């Protein structure tokens, strides 16, 4: 699908300045339309109040229908829903929708892997760090950073060293103590 | 991979949303645990998550500098990767932890160049978020290395961060272009995309560099589809800016990218070139993926705006899309079909639109009324009638106005009146708008008249009055009237009108009331008043505070010698000083223009405390054919009390074009000595004279400024019967602004449609001026200015009489 993206690209009236900044916002809402996660990359909606109003608006317009894409408030919105969550990727009306879809799918698929296919609210909340890190890997400041979900999952892979202090070996404790001393000396 | 959710750490105890009851203060309290040693990394990571969540929800402002104490302490425990990653994220969110930046920077730099690949990318990004331009120099070396790093995540991160840094440190980032260039040849599609993007942004103001970039990549080919998208946009932008010819290599590049080999948006594309592209789009229309369908329809829509014939091949597919479950797609399909379809289909389409008009969002409602011209008048009618029904329910006045405007433009041959009731929304404005459409559009006129008749019975006073007025004007069906009363507002002053009307009613006369006899307002009037209906039905105009003109009018009317002069046409806006300000006598002159005469009003002040002047007059010696008729003296001018004397002059009759004249002035009076302390004057005095500066009368005194809102309409209305044109060279003037300013001042006419503002960097300009010449004749001047070495000016003047035109041209020359 990404390959077709550039085919349609050439057919657009691209009056807009060509730019890497393609994504305006990424949103995840629950099935009441409340915000679970929102990252705005530009000043389209500067205040929290405006953001929430926008989110309400798009939720009302999209949660009933199943289609993936809409044009609202002068912005292109691609969206996807799963059980009790709604994912949105927002771009300007001139943006190539297929690129935005790529972002959406990447986000969705990465989360799907991280949550073991359990893409629903409870699981997401339990793994907020993963969500934050995943979004950070996919879009940085409005620029698409990565579109391959595998890559994203790999980079987010917070690995098994989840060892509480009490279970560390003595040498590890000594090591961390040494580091602390070093830093406190540097200060 | 799921993190175990430790029940001990949970604050709100088992709610469905563990973050739901988070409180900012509680979390900040918790953050003190960051200061503990040894640090519990999991707990800290968890707290950081909560902090980030709060920021995300907008409950915690990222801007508070010390909102989270001790984040930097977390860096002491560098072992735990989750914690570290969360730290990076927090740093990015709260990028103004000012004092801690240095410490954080050093550890981030270490991470950036460290061995752990998974940290390097995020470290780079975090670092670049908090760094400023001075810091940037320090880490420049690392950035360059990162850009060309083999690990794609590192390279991408570095490139994207460089892009963000362009905004504040353009010069520094510019130096990394070579590295970015290298990165373009990377295998990783994202790296290529980012590198290309960065290069473009750095070079985008240099068109030559951009072209070179494009041609280079044309030859080598690009792997990344994102990069292709980018390049296509860049190339088409270039083409647009160059007004590209078909042969440009850029065009070839774009053609080569696409199997469909054509670009829609480029200027001058013919339908044939579009055909292959359109066929590809046709395929997309039947795609199962909604996004593809949407993209296809949107593109087809844009194509149809310029080349409807090219899209007809897709009509069948488009019709299928009309019933698509996605409303946006369906509406776009319909609007496209409306542009390209045949009669029968349009009828069907209109029915379908009305069925779900209420559901679609507002942008589409705006798009659909913008239907350029289905050829068939019948379908147009049905379409418009649907629009009218739509307006009835429409709550958006802006939308309704636009639709009204559209209706006005399209001008159907409707026989039955349109069932429109938008008037209830914005009554009087709508009435004016309706009248404007009626005035401009003859076909609409019958229906407008019907509507207006209905308005006459409206509840609102103002609506009724306006409707009556417009009705009577429109029914006369004279274009001139329409232009005069509807399109361009009345220019008379309201109190003057009131007075004139009063006078008229007091002295019943056979003649109809002459609007021209009412003095013009110096500023445009926004409101209209009934004028052509019989006086008895006229409303009482509002009591506006008397303007200067009214004051003069009254003063002059009080002087018996000036009774037969007729109405005051114009008074000069500012008095002219005929003496220096420090002299014994201070004289200032105001010029009043009447239809056949001019009255010079001299305001005199005697500043000598030992003299009293009596019988003061100002004698004028004209150079041209002006004839001095009489003097009205100021009786007495004691010390420091201003008095007024008048001189009446007749305008030249034999040579009406000689409107400019210079008068040499001399003040004649009787001086009586006076005791400064007692104020008593002698009985006897002596005659004396005092020479004043010369007084100029120019064409500006004969013309009153008038604002015409719609210059073109007025231009046409006046007609070219008395049109004259001449070209002049202004050899002393070097800039257009200066020329414009001079002309406006010299002629004393009002610049219309903001034509007095000369845009920068242009060497041609058209200046539109409007005024009324003495006697009530409209005069319009259109002046085309061209700047080469000096300014050349082509002046075209139109008026309802020959005289003003001649005068204007004579005086400019």
UniProtKB/TrEMBL annotation, chain A:
Keywords: Cytoplasm, Cytoplasmic vesicle, ER-Golgi transport, Golgi apparatus, Membrane, Protein transport, Transport. It is found in: Cytoplasm; Golgi apparatus membrane; Cytoplasmic vesicle, COPI-coated vesicle membrane. GO terms for biological process: intra-Golgi vesicle-mediated transport; intracellular protein transport; retrograde vesicle-mediated transport, Golgi to endoplasmic reticulum. Its main location: cytoplasm. InterPro entries: AP_mu_sigma_su, Clathrin_sm-chain_CS, Coatomer_zeta, Longin-like_dom_sf. It comes from Phocoena sinus. Residues 22-161 form the AP complex mu/sigma subunit domain. The coatomer is a cytosolic protein complex that binds to dilysine motifs and reversibly associates with Golgi non-clathrin-coated vesicles, which further mediate biosynthetic protein transport from the ER, via the Golgi up to the trans Golgi network. Coatomer complex is required for budding from Golgi membranes, and is essential for the retrograde Golgi-to-ER transport of dilysine-tagged proteins. The zeta subunit may be involved in regulating the coat assembly and, hence, the rate of biosynthetic protein transport due to its association-dissociation properties with the coatomer complex. One of its GO terms (cellular component) is COPI vesicle coat. It is a peripheral membrane protein. The keyword Glycoprotein does not apply. Belongs to the adaptor complexes small subunit family. Oligomeric complex that consists of at least the alpha, beta, beta', gamma, delta, epsilon and zeta subunits. This is Coatomer subunit zeta.
TrEMBL record, chain B:
Residues 1-20 are annotated as: Disordered. Residues 1-11 have a biased composition (Basic and acidic residues). It is found in: Cytoplasm; Golgi apparatus membrane; Cytoplasmic vesicle, COPI-coated vesicle membrane. Residues 24-365, 377-477 form the Clathrin/coatomer adaptor adaptin-like N-terminal domain. It is a peripheral membrane protein. Residues 551-698 form the Coatomer gamma subunit appendage Ig-like subdomain domain. Belongs to the COPG family. This is Coatomer subunit gamma. It comes from Phocoena sinus (Vaquita).
């Amino acid at each position: 699908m990404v390959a077709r993206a550039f085919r349609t690209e050439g057919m657009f009236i691209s009056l807009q300045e060509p730019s890497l900044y393609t994504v305006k916002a990424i949103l995840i809402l629950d099935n009441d339309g409340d915000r679970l996660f929102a990252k705005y990359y530009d000043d389209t909606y500067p205040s929290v109040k405006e953001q929430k109003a926008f989110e309400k608006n798009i939720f009302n317009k999209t949660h009933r229908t199943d289609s993936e894409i809409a044009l609202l408030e002068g912005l292109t919105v691609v969206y996807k829903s799963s059980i009790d969550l709604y994912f949105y990727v927002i771009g300007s009306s001139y943006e190539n929708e297929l690129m935005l879809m790529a972002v959406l799918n990447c986000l969705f698929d990465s989360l799907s892997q991280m949550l073991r296919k359990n893409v629903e609210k409870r699981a997401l909340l339990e793994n907020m760090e993963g969500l934050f890190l995943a979004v950070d890997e996919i879009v940085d400041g409005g620029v698409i950073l990565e579109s391959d979900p595998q890559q994203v999952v790999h980079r987010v892979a917070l690995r098994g060293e989840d060892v509480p202090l009490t279970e560390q070996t003595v040498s590890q404790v000594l090591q961390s103590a040494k580091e602390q001393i070093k830093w406190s000396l540097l200060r | 991979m799921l993190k175990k959710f430790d029940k001990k750490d949970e604050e709100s105890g088992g709610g469905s949303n563990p973050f739901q009851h988070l409180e900012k203060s509680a979390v900040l309290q918790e953050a003190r645990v960051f200061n503990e040693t040894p640090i519990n990394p999991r707990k800290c990571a968890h707290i950081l998550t909560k902090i980030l969540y709060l920021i995300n929800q907008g409950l915690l402002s990222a801007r508070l500098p010390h909102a989270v104490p001790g984040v930097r302490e977390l860096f002491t425990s560098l072992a735990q990767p989750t914690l570290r990653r969360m730290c990076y994220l927090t740093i990015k969110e709260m990028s103004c932890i000012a004092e801690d930046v240095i410490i954080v920077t050093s550890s981030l730099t270490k991470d950036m160049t460290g061995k752990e690949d998974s940290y390097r990318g995020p470290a780079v990004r975090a670092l670049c978020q908090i760094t400023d331009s001075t810091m940037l120099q320090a880490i420049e070396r690392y950035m360059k290395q990162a850009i060309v790093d083999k690990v794609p995540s590192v390279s991408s991160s570095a490139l994207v961060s460089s892009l963000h840094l362009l905004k504040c440190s353009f010069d520094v980032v510019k130096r990394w272009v070579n590295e970015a260039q290298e990165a373009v040849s990377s295998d990783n599609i994202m790296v290529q995309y980012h590198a290309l993007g960065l290069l473009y942004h750095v070079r985008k103001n240099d068109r030559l560099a951009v072209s070179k970039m494009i041609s280079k990549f044309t030859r080598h080919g690009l792997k990344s589809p994102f990069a292709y998208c980018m390049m296509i946009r860049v190339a088409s932008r270039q083409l647009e800016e160059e007004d590209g010819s078909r042969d440009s290599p850029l065009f070839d590049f774009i053609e080569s990218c696409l199997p469909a080999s054509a670009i829609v948006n480029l200027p001058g594309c013919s339908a044939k070139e579009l055909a292959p592209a359109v066929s590809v789009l046709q395929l997309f229309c039947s795609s199962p993926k909604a996004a593809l369908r949407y993209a296809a329809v949107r593109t087809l829509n844009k194509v149809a705006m310029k080349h409807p014939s090219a899209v007809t091949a897709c009509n069948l597919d488009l019709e299928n899309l009309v019933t698509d479950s996605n409303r946006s797609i369906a509406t776009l399909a319909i609007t496209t079909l409306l542009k390209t379809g045949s009669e029968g289909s349009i009828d069907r389409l209109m029915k379908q639109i009305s069925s779900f008009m209420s559901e679609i969002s507002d942008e589409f409602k705006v798009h659909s009324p913008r239907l350029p011209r289905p050829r068939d008048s019948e379908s147009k009618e049905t379409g418009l009638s649907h629009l009218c029904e739509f307006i009835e329910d429409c709550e958006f006045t802006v939308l309704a106005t636009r639709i009204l405007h559209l209706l006005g433009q399209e001008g159907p041959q409707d026989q039955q009146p349109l069932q429109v009731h938008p008037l209830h929304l914005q009554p009087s404005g709508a009435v004016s708008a309706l009248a404007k459409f009626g005035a401009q559009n003859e076909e609409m006129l019958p229906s407008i008249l019907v509507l207006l008749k209905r308005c006459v019975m409206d509840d609102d006073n103002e609506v009724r009055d306006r409707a009556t007025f417009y009705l009577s004007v429109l029914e006369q069906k004279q274009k001139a009237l329409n232009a005069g009363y509807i399109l361009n507002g009345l220019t008379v002053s309201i109190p003057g009108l009131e007075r004139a009307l009063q006078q008229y009613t007091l002295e019943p006369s056979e003649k109809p009331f002459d609007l021209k006899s009412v003095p013009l307002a110096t500023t445009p009037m926004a409101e209209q008043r009934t004028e052509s209906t019989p006086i008895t039905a006229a409303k009482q105009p509002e009591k506006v505070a008397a303007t200067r003109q009214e004051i003069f009018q009254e003063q002059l009317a009080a002087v018996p010698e000036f009774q037969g002069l007729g109405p005051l046409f114009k008074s000069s806006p500012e008095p002219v000083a005929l003496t220096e300000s420090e002299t014994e006598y201070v004289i200032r002159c105001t010029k009043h223009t009447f239809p056949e005469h001019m009255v010079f009003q001299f305001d005199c002040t005697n500043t000598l405390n030992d003299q009293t002047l009596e019988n003061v007059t100002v004698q004028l010696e004209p150079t041209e054919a002006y004839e001095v008729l009489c003097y009205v003296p100021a009786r007495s001018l004691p010390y420091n009390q201003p008095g007024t004397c008048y001189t009446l002059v007749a305008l030249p009759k034999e040579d009406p074009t000689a409107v400019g004249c210079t008068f040499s002035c001399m003040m004649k009076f009787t001086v009586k000595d006076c005791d400064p302390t007692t104020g008593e004057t002698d009985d006897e005095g002596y005659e004396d004279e005092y020479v004043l500066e010369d007084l100029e009368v120019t064409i500006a005194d004969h013309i009153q400024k008038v604002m015409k809102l719609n210059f073109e309409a007025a231009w046409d209305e006046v007609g070219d019967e008395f049109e004259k044109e001449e070209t002049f060279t202004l050899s002393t003037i070097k800039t257009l602004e200066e020329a414009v300013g001079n002309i406006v001042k010299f002629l004393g006419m009002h610049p219309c449609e903001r034509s007095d503002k000369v845009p920068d960097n242009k060497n041609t300009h058209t200046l539109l001026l409007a005024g009324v010449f003495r006697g009530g004749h409209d005069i319009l001047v259109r002046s085309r200015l061209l700047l080469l070495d000096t300014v050349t000016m082509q002046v075209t003047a139109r008026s309802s009489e020959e005289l003003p035109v001649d005068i204007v041209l004579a005086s400019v020359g």
